[in-house]
Every structure is written in structure tokens, then in C-alpha cells.
Design a protein that fits this description.
It contains 10 helices and 13 strands. Its cofactor is FMN.
Length: 322
């Protein structure tokens, strides 16, 4: 019987699954489930046609910057296609605008985003959680502060936020190319109490200042403690679980020994091989970089005619800040 069900394709299997849970096979829930399954099927077919991932560890190329050489006041010298097109004004709270429109706009427009792969556990230590977040960023280095935005899922608060509120501790782990499938597996909407460690096959490593484990496969991990949590109510559906912004202060760093310089002040990019999250289901890898040094006014103004002209027009003295 089971073989017969599987042989009839994903739509038939979904129908059987829905019926087993007394969910109408023609209702809105069934339509969403079947539509999602169909999109994933088409995506799998598209992936099958794509070239294989390049595992050769090709050296990351370092090039000149896009507009090199560049002078003060030049703006964008090498314009890309479309720079002369008009811009469209959008009200994120317009009555006919869905919140998913804002979601898709933001994740495709604010890109690439670093991925904070966060390990937490409940206050009693019985439930562990592991989840990736791209609403994440380092805030400062003294003290070493990080911020993560955690929105609700299906109107309910996420396990990570629940654990952070209970224990006030976590480990933030970096995500390298070789880890992405395992990391992505932890984003599945598993019931509370299901171990994402087992789902992903990733390995726990001990921490020293917090209870949650580090991810052994991560090149760089940060033990951290919650400094503050600020919650914001949802506008689209008042009464649902709020979005939370969590501030985390680092208490320990862990760096893979071969991936950093002698005093552990710099991590080599070709060892870290970080990924950035883009729009939709896409990720980006780093294959090329360029340097753009930040200059000091007092060093530049005495040597640069353009800056001296700016200085004289503003009535400032050469060598002083304006």
C-alpha cells in the first residue's frame, strides 16, 4: 500500500497526508500545502539543470575597485545600466500592500546579509535549539555587541526567542559554504523540543561561559549573553506574537586555529568562505574582492587641490576638520 501511494506522485501523497489529519483536500490549507509542494518540485527540477558547485577552493581574486582611479567629487564614473531610470515611492503600510510584499522587497534589496547561526537552550537546559538568522549584524567591538531580529512564525514566537528570554545565553556561529545544506535544515518549522542538531547532523562543541553548545563545523563562534530585548507589535495582525530585537554581548570568541593570524586578530577569508543571504532562497559566495582604503582629512587636504578648494569655500583652515 505504501509503495502504491509513493508511486502516484507528490500531489496524491499530500492528499493522503491531509486526509489522515482530517484536513479538507479542497480547502485553503490544502491549497497552500499543495501550491508550496508544487513550487518546490519545480525548483528541484531547475536545480537539476544547473552546473555543479565548484569545490576546487579556487583562490579568491583581488582586483582594482570599480572606478579606480577615483577623485573627490567624481561620483559614480562607471555607471551601470538603469541608473537614469525613475524611482518608485512605496508606502510600506498602504492598505492594499501585503506584509509579504515588504518581506520579499527587503530581503532582495538589503543584500547580501550575514547569517547568524544561533545555538540556544531552554532555561531548564532540557531543550536545545539551533537556527539561522539573516536579520543579524555586529553592532560594535568595544564592547563586542551583536543584534538579531526575530519575527514570529505563523503568528507564534520562535523557539530561539523563547530560549533567549529564559536563559539569556547563546552562541552565534558563522556559516561557511560547506555547511549550508545542514544549516538550512535547521530552519524547518519543527515542533518545539525537536533537536535541530540531529536534523542537521552538525556536531556540538563545549562552551565555557554559556550553557548552549558551539557548532564544531563553524570557523568562528561567539559565546554571548543577552543585554536587552525590545519587542515591536505586528501592524498587519495586531495581537500576534511581536517581533523582537535582541542585543547580545560577546563573552568568548572561538576561532579555528588554522583560520587566523598569529594573535587571532584577523580571520582569513579563504578559510572562512562565508555566505551571504540574498532574496528568495538564494545565497551568494565570495569569489572576488577589492580594497578601498579610508583616508584621513589631515593627510589628504595638504596634497589634494580639490580638497583645498572645498576647504577655502567653507572658510576652514588647511589641516583642520570641516
Amino acid at each position: 500500500m505504501e509503495d502504491e501511494i509513493w508511486s502516484k506522485g507528490p500531489k496524491f501523497r499530500l492528499s493522503c497526508w491531509l486526509q489522515s489529519r482530517t484536513i479538507s483536500t479542497t480547502g485553503p490549507i490544502a491549497a497552500r500545502v499543495i501550491n508550496r509542494a508544487e513550487r518546490l518540485r519545480k525548483h528541484d527540477e531547475e536545480i537539476a539543470r544547473r552546473p555543479e558547485f565548484d569545490h576546487s577552493d579556487t583562490p579568491i581574486e583581488v582586483t582594482k575597485s570599480p572606478n579606480s582611479p577615483w577623485e573627490y567629487g567624481q561620483g559614480v564614473r562607471m555607471k551601470s545600466p538603469g541608473t537614469d531610470q525613475a524611482h518608485k515611492e512605496i508606502d510600506p503600510y498602504a492598505p492594499n500592500r501585503q506584509k509579504t510584499d515588504n518581506y520579499h522587497l527587503l530581503i532582495s534589496g538589503i543584500a547580501p546579509r550575514p547569517i547568524g547561526f544561533i545555538s540556544t537552550q531552554s532555561g531548564d537546559g532540557k531543550t536545545k535549539n539551533l537556527a539561522p538568522f539573516s536579520y543579524f549584524q555586529v553592532v560594535d567591538h568595544d564592547p563586542p555587541l551583536f543584534i538579531v531580529g526575530i519575527g514570529p512564525k505563523s503568528g507564534q514566537g520562535k523557539d530561539t526567542l523563547c530560549n533567549l528570554k529564559q536563559s539569556g545565553e547563546c552562541v552565534i556561529n558563522t556559516v561557511s559554504e560547506s555547511m549550508i545544506e545542514a544549516v538550512n535544515a535547521t530552519s524547518i518549522d519543527a515542533p518545539y523540543g525537536v533537536s535541530e542538531w540531529e536534523l542537521s547532523g552538525l556536531h556540538e562543541a563545549p562552551s565555557t561561559t554559556v550553557s548552549p553548545s558551539r557548532v564544531q563545523e563553524s570557523v568562528f563562534s561567539i559565546e554571548g549573553k543577552v543585554v536587552d530585548i525590545k519587542e515591536f507589535p505586528e501592524y498587519a495582525k495586531p495581537g500576534m506574537a511581536p517581533t523582537a530585537v535582541v542585543f547580545i554581548e560577546a563573552s568568548r570568541f572561538w576561532i579555528r586555529e588554522d583560520a587566523a593570524n598569529e594573535n587571532y586578530s584577523h580571520i582569513y577569508l579563504d578559510k572562512l568562505r562565508p555566505l551571504g543571504q540574498l532574496g528568495g532562497m538564494a545565497y551568494g559566495r565570495i569569489t572576488s574582492t577589492f580594497d578601498v582604503p579610508r583616508k584621513m582629512w589631515e593627510d589628504e587636504v595638504t596634497e589634494n587641490d580639490i580638497l583645498r578648494n572645498f576647504t577655502s569655500r567653507n572658510g576652514a583652515k588647511v589641516g583642520s576638520q570641516v
